[in-house]
């Protein structure tokens, strides 16, 4: 069993929670309230600004030029492709550029993105990759799961989101992250692996907390 297989087996409960959340289910069924998706889009844009910085830190911590250029390519992809989807949704949902750029991050958005940045700044490349893994992998799993729901990919509001995260291109990014995690885990001590597991578990839980925060449109209690 590879390290990443071990992770989703050990934390299958938390892993499934990310996919079974009502926000995700209603997004796929096309029944999600537009105001919830609008709230999510703004918070996710803010999250992605910090998330993109992890890839810059990954390039700095990369042990070779190949890995460095892979992090750099992913950084560019997030800034231009993934955040491009958010800008397109913003236009469609009546979110102005000013609202997007000046929005306040919720405490959950701050906690999640700052936790990842803390891990990335203070750990090595393996810790950074463990923090990223649930973000890339869970979105790909969700994209593929929602793609199977009749009408989801063609939904006038949410189809673009489902198409983006179920796309072959996004899948390649997720697979790259899974393969990198397995490569970096080889030869690590038991205590190092335990630390990577905890990071993976924390960001997996943050994924579900992010869906919950968006579902409740919760800036505060
Ligand atoms: C909260 C969150 N997690 C992950 C992803 C996928 N990059 C995202 N857009 N937003």
From TrEMBL:
Keyword set for this entry?
Hydrolase, Thiamine biosynthesis
Provide the top EC class: hydrolase
User: Which pathway does it operate in?
Assistant: Cofactor biosynthesis; thiamine diphosphate biosynthesis
Q: Which residues form the Thiaminase-2/PQQC domain?
A: 12-216
Q: One GO CC term of this entry?
A: cytosol
Which InterPro entries does the record associate with it? Haem_Oase-like_multi-hlx, TenA_E, Thiaminase-2/PQQC, Thiaminase_II, Thiamine_Salvage_TenA
Q: Which reaction(s) are listed as its catalytic activity?
A: 4-amino-5-aminomethyl-2-methylpyrimidine + H2O = 4-amino-5-hydroxymethyl-2-methylpyrimidine + NH4(+); thiamine + H2O = 5-(2-hydroxyethyl)-4-methylthiazole + 4-amino-5-hydroxymethyl-2-methylpyrimidine + H(+)
A Gene Ontology molecular function term of the record: thiaminase activity
Catalytic residues in the record: 207 (proton donor)
Report whether DNA-binding shows up as a keyword of the record: no
Q: What is its EC number?
A: 3.5.99.2
UniProt GO BP: thiamine biosynthetic process; thiamine diphosphate biosynthetic process
UniProt xrefs under NCBIfam families? salvage_TenA (TIGR04306)
- Which PANTHER family does this one have? BIFUNCTIONAL TH2 PROTEIN (PTHR43198), SI:CH1073-67J19.1-RELATED (PTHR43198:SF2)
Annotated family: Belongs to the TenA family.
What the protein does comes down to: Catalyzes an amino-pyrimidine hydrolysis reaction at the C5' of the pyrimidine moiety of thiamine compounds, a reaction that is part of a thiamine salvage pathway. Thus, catalyzes the conversion of 4-amino-5-aminomethyl-2-methylpyrimidine to 4-amino-5-hydroxymethyl-2-methylpyrimidine (HMP).
- Oligomeric state and partners? Homotetramer.
Q: What is this protein called?
A: Aminopyrimidine aminohydrolase
Q: What is the lineage of its organism?
A: Bacteria, Bacillati, Bacillota, Bacilli, Bacillales
